[in-house]
Write a structure and sequence with these properties.
The chain is mainly α. 63% of the residues lie in helices and 11% in strands. Strand 2 (88-93) and strand 3 form a beta hairpin. Helix 1 (17-38) packs antiparallel against helix 6.
Length: 159
């Protein structure tokens, strides 16, 4: 099926071939990205928060939470680790002391180019055997699947 993974689909996944392929892809892609991030002393997901701050420094924790789509505890833990590593600061907002505003430090800003390079390299590895048309089609399909799963999750949590 994929590279060094078993080509045999588990029986229990027989009616979920696409979902199993997505799981396997996400696992191997995240693992490769995690190794690249470790070289920068980052954990997976921290680069997503940094990229949001590169685009607009001084966001609240709630804004970051919404933009990256991770749960509150994951974002809080990541921001705490990043603050301890000297990559950012968190300060109460002047208008509401309960709201925390996140700012990059010079050390955090210095990661913009390495993170950009890392994502470029990850993309090159990912699309190496694909045509531009296949990349476009995959991206479109992935977004449609993501929307479908999100919509279902919203319906399930609302009902």
């Amino acid at each position: 099926m994929f590279g060094t993974t078993s080509s045999e689909l588990p029986n229990a996944a027989g009616e979920g071939r696409l979902s199993y392929a997505i799981f396997q892809l996400a696992r191997v892609h995240r693992g490769h990205a995690a190794a690249m991030l470790r070289a920068m002393n980052l954990h997976p997901g921290q680069e997503l928060l940094l990229m949001q701050l590169f685009d607009r420094d001084g966001q609240t924790q709630a804004e970051l939470l919404e933009r990256v789509g991770l749960d509150h505890s994951t974002v809080s833990k990541s921001l705490r680790r990043m603050q301890e590593a000297g990559l950012l600061t968190r300060e109460p907002a002047p208008h509401d002391r309960r709201v925390m505003v996140v700012h990059l430090t010079d050390a955090g800003r210095a990661l913009q180019e390495p993170i950009t390079d890392m994502w470029r390299t990850l993309e090159q590895v990912s699309v190496r055997d694909l045509t531009p048309e296949q990349v476009e089609m995959f991206t479109t399909c992935a977004r449609l699947i993501e929307k479908s799963v999100r919509d279902q999750s919203r319906q399930t949590s609302a009902g």
